[in-house]
Amino acid sequence: MPFEHRAEPLLPYHEFLGRMLRGLLFGLAVIAGALGIGVVGYHVTGGLSWLDSLYNASMILGGMGPVDNRPVVPDAEKWFASFYALFSGIAFLVIVGVMLAPVYHRFLHRFHLEIEDDRPGPG
Description:
The protein is mostly helical. Helix content is 73%, strand content 0%. It is built from 3 helices and no strands.
């Protein structure tokens, strides 16, 4: 997602909204991919049904934690859940960063432009 240089004018609002939409769509794609990894992982390592796998993966990806209430959980599922939880935490940070980057950049760009406007001109 290329951003305008500080010497370039501020992006028009409708183009800024397009940039926000692209960031949102990218974030949703990353969420879908991360959720897919979790669903398949739980299904394969824990032998859970697809719905239970989706339920566990969604809860971990959302930061709530696993909801497995079986008395015995297979070791493979424990290993997978451990790494998936770490991956989910990092994925969350990346998703938020990508989705908020246009807003942050616009703020900094506008602030920089205002500072430049306040400087006295040459001569």
